Input
Amino acid sequence: MKRWVPNGIRHLYEFGEFQLDPDRHRLLRDGQLVPLPPRAIDLLILFVRNPGKALERQALLEAIWTGAIVEDANLTVAISHLRKALGQNAGPAEFIETIPRIGYRFVADPREVVEEHAPLTTQRPRQPLTITEEEIETPATKASNGAHPAAERVPNEPEALVAADKIGASSRTKKQALVLLALLALGVVGFLIYWRTAARPGTSAAPVQMKSIAVLPFQSLGRATPEDEYLALGLADALSSRLSRLKQFVVRPTSSVLKFSGAAQEPVEAGRALGVDGVIDGLVQHDQDRVRLTTHLLRVSDGAVLWTDSFNERFTSLFEVEDVVSQHVVKALQLKLTTAEEQDLVRQGTRNSEAFGAYLRGRYAWNKRTTENTKKALQFFQEAIELDPAYAAAYAGLADCYLALGDYGDASPNESFPRARGAALRALEIDDSLAEAHASLAQTRFLFDWDWAGAEREYLRAIELKPNYATAHHWYAMFLAGRGRSEEAMREIKRAEDLDPLSLIIRANIGTIHYFARDYDRAIAQEQKVLEADSGFIQARRKLAFALEAAGKDQETVAEWLRVEQQLGASEATLAAYRSAAAASGLTGYWLQAIEVEKKESGGEAGALSSYYARLGETEQALHWLERAIDQRAPWLVYAKVTPVYDNLRGDLRFGALLQRLGQ
Output
């Protein structure tokens, strides 16, 4: 489409402190030129001519890049450029609003202004539209392809700008482009200056300092299938794990970025929520045996694209994709790696593509963190091991699954923990540098073997190998808390929180450490803070109930335990019985009813019954059930030395003897 100015009349659009001149293809801010790539200007023109209308992503792609095969990422990058130029930061959208799963809307109210000038006759003929991975080739690229840099041209406005009609644009007469030579020269100079400093496909921008990054779950291109979903999250998780081997910056764990999976939140906004300096974002599409992947590294402070690249590979080549993306991130951040770090970065767990696929499915299921999905993950990790018996990461995943099932009571500790230990040991036989396997082994030494020295040794080894591994710091903190080393425990868990600030369980266990240290007011305040973030997080609600009880707040304790029971799915009859017992005898009545329910509904879990009787001061029954819990090797017994629940028993020599059986 050629631009022209009929009879010297120009239509300008003003919004806020900006003035958009579609005919001259430029944006001014308080009279000063705002440098923008041509496609971003085209997009802005389309927006201001359709204020308040929802414009779908696909329609925008067709309108701005008519006839060209481009990635969905091109639109994301153009939107990012626009928002940066307009000064739109996090918070309510001032100009461009994201409509989840649909597209975008221009929410400002532009005012159309008509200016009259002397008629112009100069026209600039159209040239064929050429689309590279983003929008333009650089002078260096042109030169390398045999074209002189001086011959570089500015891409013209897309033919499909008029195609706004099909996405709600008002009907307009097609205009022919009329551009003054001086403006053309100015545009070329401004464009080259801008793109000299902007990110280009496969290259990095100016040196940046980043102390933390997050790999967001990749978005599925088009209508997502289950295959796309597992691949999108699994690849992001694998890349996150790969980059976390580097000690020069912190990589947020997958558990923290899961909330952004499948969401329409902008990458930069997600980065701000995660408290990181940079984010890796991507689009993925799985088509039979091929995978199409586009990734970009964005700086959170200003939304700058530091690096972007695309891959269209066979599934068997995804190992190489991981290598390339990891190395490009290092290059974009201009990190100086030692030889050992370089080797560690490209170290592969397997070369068997089927095993890798099963592992990705396992990680996808594991990150769902439910009993059902943990069991599915276990099966996928076992499948990966059958396909490649030397796949250390799959053994580490297997260990995590068995640990989770045993720790949360979904499997017998006497069955699950030995299996977790065996899987962790096998992983370390294959690769002793795997920090995750050392941490998993430490957990089995702590929760099941009661090998305190061995557990601490493995925790410290995991942290040595991967200093920014939040889980290792978290687990080690709870080990220290169980040993009564509360000050050390608090330092470790604060470090874990720094590394993974959105983790609810880490934040809730800060309260647990306060609780063990008998600092009940801080424990209560901490759990309440966690519940403000997520009222459905039952672990924090349970911990709050424990702290309220220890602080002597009986009525609040009953109310909180009733909420816990309700969240666990207790029947109305059971809840009514609890309320009736508490109304008649207060907290004592509540625990008497809990004993009845425990014996009737679950056959009597020894650990739970020992804690109920201890609260009631019934020493004989409490010690009887505590001894049975020790025989069953209940995982939570590692905290018997420090938990206030057993304070009524501490003067009894038999309780001391039971602690000795635990090695405490």
